[in-house]
Amino acid sequence: MIDFIKASTSKEREAINLFLLRHNAWGQGSTQGYVAYYAAVTPPDSRPLVDRIVAAAKVCPLHTPAASRFFAGKKGEAWKHVYCLQRLAAYHAPENLLSRFVGWILRDLGRDPRIHLVATYADTGLYGPDGRPQDGGIYRATNAVYCGLSAAKRVVAYQLNGQRHSLRKGGVTTRIADIPDQARLIRGTKKHRYCWAVGSRLKRAFRRRALEARMVRFTFEPVYQPKLLATLRGLGEWLGRQWLRGVQR
């Protein structure tokens, strides 16, 4: 049996952060400001809590007003009510648990009057076990509204003396002007954007209709990164050689 919990103690939050460090490519995420911690855990036993977690997530306000306005619209102060599913990870989780876990998180967030929309991103620069770029399949399975593909223009980090340094650390963002001249800038990869409407049944329906109207121009299309293209190209060449051998026989 798997229980879903919202962390209420520092011990639980530390365990979730450690789990995310182990199993999420981008680490634990934000620890400052409003952050909600969630976990799916197996029944208590002699193991520490972090080893009983099979899935974990963190939710916080979206990182910039501009990003929030993209989801909420540019009028008024609706952008202040856009939050972000910033981290999500699973390890040895039962089949279909992740979609149930996300649904449970969204219902819990819907009870918070500060939260109207919950956005998230699927980074095409990361790959799943099947070798394909992430495309947010779990988000589509939980009925999120697809909100298009972000551009890969923003500088997210820089490399100096062989080490990668993120521009964002906690609540502080390094300015481009402050990056050493000899550093190599690292731009973000394209990301699929998704968003859920939350709240009471009527409010959720109203917010979803408005969100769908704003995002009607977007249609989901998979993105193939160079790594996958190279794999497909290699597979095509191998199939071509096999066909040629068959003809020569």
Walk me through the structure.
The protein is α+β, with helices and mostly antiparallel strands and 249 residues long. It has seven helices and twelve strands. It has helices spanning 10-23, 49-52, 65-72, 97-109, 137-141, 201-214, 226-248, and strands at residues 3-6, 36-41, 53-61, 82-90, 117-123, 145-149, 155-160, 163-166, 168-169, 172-173, 184-187, 191-197. The strands form three sheets. It has a seven-stranded mixed sheet with strand order 1-2-3-4-5-12-6, sandwiched between helices. A three-stranded antiparallel sheet has the order 8-7-11, with no helix packed on it.
C-alpha Rg, in Å? 21 Å
Sheet with the most strands, sense and barrel status: 7 strands, mixed
Mean pLDDT: 86
Helix and strand pattern: EHEHEHEHEHEEEEEEEHH
Give the CATH H-level superfamily of the largest domain.
Gcn5-related N-acetyltransferase (GNAT)
Please state roughly what percent of the residues sit in beta strands, choosing from under 5%, 5-15%, 15-25%, 25-35%, 35-45% or over 45%.
Answer: 25-35%
| CATH class category name of the largest domain | Alpha Beta
Question: What is the domain total for the residues?
Answer: 2
The rounded distance between the terminal residues' Cα atoms is 58 Å
CATH topology of the largest domain, which one? Aminopeptidase
Provide the low-confidence segments as ranges.
none
Helix content: 25-40%
How many strands in all? 12
